[in-house]
Design goal:
By secondary structure, this protein is an alpha/beta fold. The protein is about 30% helix and about 25% strand. Strands 6, 7, 8, 9, 10 and 11 form a 6-stranded mixed β-sheet that branches. A 5-stranded mixed β-sheet has the order 3-2-1-4-5, with helices on both faces. Strand 4, helix 2 and strand 5 form a beta-alpha-beta unit. The longest helix has 18 residues. The chain starts with a strand and ends with a helix. The C terminus is likely disordered.
Length: about 240
Amino acid sequence: MKVLALDTATEACSVALLTDAGLVGAFREVGRGHAEQILDMVDAVLAEAGVVLGMLDGIAAGVGPGAFTGVRIGVSVAQGLAFGAALPVVAVTTLEALALQAMGGGAKQVMACLDARMGEVYWGCFVSHPTRGLGACGAPAVGDARSVNVPLVGPFQGIGRGFAAYPDLQALAGLDLPAGACAALPDAKDMARLGAIRLGLGEGRDPAELIPVYLRDKVALTEVERAAAKQAAPQ
């Protein structure tokens, strides 16, 4: 199976191609400018593997949660490529990609956590699954650090920059944080792996059905909210 994956939802811009010969990819932490780089990265990865879009079995798209603009860019690019080559798409969330990254190191239960800005985090818990790669322990969530909790049956391995942005989360009972886990970002390589599983299970969809995962509909704090947060912060 040949699966192209791409993600622009976080500080990282990543592309990966999974084929029977293996996995190739490109990963750049760019902060901004995803739209200017993603298509060139797609072309470079396809060229490295000697593959053209028409040879693919499908595209795995990173659908968020993450930065609003970044999520829209990734979904739009995936749709455009899929429409042009008449390919099915599958959605992979950033939290799922982070969880699979940890599972690649041997973890069986994972809490993935990303900085959502505005004093909040995106988070979700997952368990390893023999046929699907992973399964979710409930719906992904967004909220302040106090809303995050580890399921009763632990331990869970933590991964993602939400733990670095809000250090209090690192002390959660039932959580294990290996070295480097707090610096992790989603990578299209993990999305390609999950995408291949989902395409193999017949879950490919028309590109028009690809839906971004935002979890909230607010982009930024108002001036009043920023002032209140500054006043409430410890001096």
